[in-house]
Amino acid sequence: MLAIDAPGGAASDPGSMVDVEIPTPVPHGHDLLVAVDAVSVNPVDVKNRGRAKKGDAPRVLGFDAVGRVVAVGEDARRFGVGDRVFYAGQIDRAGSDAQFQLVNENIVGAAPESLTDAEAAAVPLTAITAWEALFDRLRLGADSEGTLLVIGAAGGVGSLIIQFARALTRLTVIAVASRPESEEWVTRMGADHVVGRDFADAVREIAPGGVDYVFTSFTPGNIDAIAAVIRPRGEVVSIDETGGSIDALKGKSVTWHWELMFTRPIHEPDDDYQHELLTRVAGLLDAGEVSTTLTTTLSPLDAATLREAHALVETSRTIGKVVVTGPWGAE
User: Fold this and answer.
1) Taking Cα atoms as reference points, which of 63, 242, 88 lies closest to residue 151?
2) Per-residue pLDDT averaged across 255-270, rounded?
3) How far apart are CA 288 and CA 282, in angstroms?
4) Is 331 a domain residue?
5) Share of the chain above pLDDT 90, in %
6) Which of 24, 45, 122, 305 could pair with 321 as two cysteines, CB 3.0-4.6 Å apart?
7) Helix, strand, coil shares of the chain as percentages rounded to 5?
C-alpha cells in the first residue's frame, strides 16, 4: 500500500491522494530498497501535490524518510540489510510515501541512534538545505563572525539554520518570528534576538551597520526590507522564489545565492556529499549539539493521514516539522 498523487485539488479533497497497490521495486546499482517507517511533510511536498493527470501512471509523493534496508543493489556498499537509515530522497524519483522505496545510497545516512523514527524523519531535507545554505552557499565556518538574519525562522529549515549557526559558527542570529509561539520556539532553537514580521526597524537597532548574511524561506514581500537591513556587499541565500525583482539589492552590491538540496542528487548522482553530510548531522544529533525539529506526529501511514499532514503544512503556520509514522494504514 502506498499514497499516490491523484488528480484533485485541496488536501481536504479525498481524491487528492489515494491508496493503491503497485509492485515492490527491485534495487539495482547503488540503490537501497528501504521499508519506510516514518515520513515528514515539507512545503515542497505540498507544491508537488496535484500535478497528476487523469490516466497518468501512479505517482508516489514524499521525500524525508526513516526506514530499514531490506535489499541492496549489486554495487551498493555503504549499507546492508537491516540497517536503519534516513534520507531526503530525490525530486526525480518515486517518493517516500510508500511501504518500500528505492534510494541511491550516496544520499543516505545511518539514522541517529538516539532518535525515534518520528524524530529522525523530521530532519534530513531541512538539515541538508540548512547545511548547504550556510556552509556551501555562504561558505561559513567555525571562525565565521557577524550577524545572520533568518526569515522563516520557525520553519523546519529556519530552525536548523539557527541550530547549525549556534553550534558550528560564531555568528549572532536574529530570527524573524511573527507569533508568541514561534518566538518561543526560535528562542529555544538558539536565536540571540527575535524580531517581528515587520523587522526592518528592529533589525537596524540590533545591527546598525547592517546584517552580514540573510537566509530567507519567505522571500516575496521581503526584498525591500532585506535591502534596508543588509550591509553593503552582504550575502543572501534563498530557498524561495522571489515573486518579482531583486533589483533593490543592486545598490549595495549584494550577492544572491539560490539553495536547492535536490541539485546534487539530480546532476551529480555519484557525489557522496549528502551521505557524508547526514552522517555528520546524525553525530550532532546523537551528541545533543542539535535537536530534532519534530513538533507534530500523525499516524497511521496512509493517504488520509498524509492529506491531514499536507493540510497542516500548507497553512504556512506550522512550527518545526510534521511527521507521519507507521503502521501502514492498509496493513
Assistant:
1) 242
2) 95
3) 10
4) no
5) 85
6) 122
7) 30, 25, 45
The whole-number pLDDT of residue 43 equals 93
| pLDDT digits 0-9 by tens, 23-38 | 999 999 999 999 999 9
SS3 72: strand
- How does strand 2-5 pair with strand 100-104? unpaired
Would you state the pLDDT for residue 1?
A: 52
Q: Do 25 and 90 share a domain, yes or no?
A: yes
Domain that holds residue 185: 126-258
CA dihedral 125, 127, 132, 134 (to 10 degrees): 140
User: Strand pairing partners for 65?
Assistant: 39, 87
Choose one of 258, 276, 300: the last residue of a domain: 258
Interatomic CA distance for residues 261 and 162, integer angstroms? 18
88 & 101 share domain:
yes
Rounded to 5 degrees, φ, ψ at 141 are -155, -170
CB 197 within 8 A of CB 180: no
Give the residue carrying C-alpha cell 529556519.
Answer: 158
- Per-residue model confidence as pLDDT tens digits over 110-137: 999 999 999 999 999 999 999 999 999 9
User: DSSP characters for 109-173?
Assistant: EEPPTTS-HHHHHTSHHHHHHHHIIIIIIS---TT--SEEEEETTTSHHHHHHHHHHHHH---EE
225 conformational bin, left if phi > 0, alpha if psi -120 to 50, beta if neither: alpha
Which single residue is written with the C-alpha cell 505517482?
Answer: 59
One-letter amino acid of 298 = L
Instruction: Output the pTM of the full model.
Output: 0.95
